[in-house]
């Protein structure tokens, strides 16, 4: 009978001080660490000299990574499958659970949360997520673009703060422009927009924008950037982005 397990460990935005105590414990207790190389490198300080097996994989091999993690756990190893930010938010948690359900043998899988990019970026900007917000990924690799458009339309028409993950990639430069157009069609005014690149890790940078000026910041927006589009009440105050929640001062 195997005693292995897979812990899907959220490593947060990048800097080790954002790791939770539970994540550190899971990494300390595991025999094998598997993950996309950027995330494994970010926790390298916890791995050096500990005699753990470490496997870094390339982007885009997620199914193989989960199947490998499952097969090693079934041999009796404690496996830490590391996933940036929160593993349950566009991360590895769902896929790992799906893969665990494929086999006949029961495989224990635990999900260890991490600070997601939205939380890390919001803290850098101020308090833009104080009211209802929608989180939408602009990546159409795993989601049809028509569905992404439908969700942008719905969130904007409900005056929600909108957090855009995966706002831009080298092969999909026009998606952000289309997203801006859809949002503009649903609202009046020019909401505040905050941009954070590499939130909570080395190289963190912030830009202040508005919806109408957002496309002037394309040089800043890449796959390490998070875009937060405010609602009709969001404003900037002394460099901080605030979405008020209704308190009367
Ligand atoms: C596939 S999603 C993974 C999200 C991750 N699971 C999380 O909870 O943050 C990748 C996208 O998250 C955003 N992202 C992740 N880490 C970030 C960071 N440190 N700063 C800004 N954006 C980040 C970027 O928009 C990036 O394209």
The main β sheet shows up as: 5 strands, parallel
How many discrete domains? 2
- Bound small-molecule species: S-adenosylmethionine
Q: Which strand order spans the largest sheet, edge to edge or round the barrel?
A: 3-2-4-1-5
Residue share in helices?
25-40%
- Percentage beta strand: 15-25%
Q: Could you say which structural class the secondary elements and strand pairing correspond to? A: alpha/beta
Q: What is the CATH homologous superfamily assignment of the largest domain? A: Tetrapyrrole methylase, C-terminal domain
**Radius of gyration, rounded?**
20 Å
What does this protein structure show overall?
The protein contains eight helices and 13 strands. Helix 4 (about 60-75) packs across helix 5 and helix 7 (about 145-155) packs parallel to helix 8. The strands form three sheets. Strands 3-2-4-1-5 form a five-stranded parallel sheet, sandwiched between helices. It has a five-stranded mixed sheet with strand order 7-8-11-9-10, sandwiched between helices. Strands 6-13-12 form a three-stranded mixed sheet. It folds into two domains: about 5-115, Cobalt-precorrin-4 Transmethylase, domain 1, CATH 3.40.1010.10; about 120-240, 2-Layer Sandwich (Methyltransferase, Cobalt-precorrin-4 Transmethylase, Domain 2), CATH 3.30.950. The mean pLDDT is about 95. The termini are far apart. With about 250 residues, the protein is an alpha/beta fold. The relative contact order is 0.15. It binds S-adenosylmethionine. S-adenosylmethionine (SAM) binds near residues 14 and 85. S-adenosylmethionine binds near residues 85, 89, 91, 117 and 198.
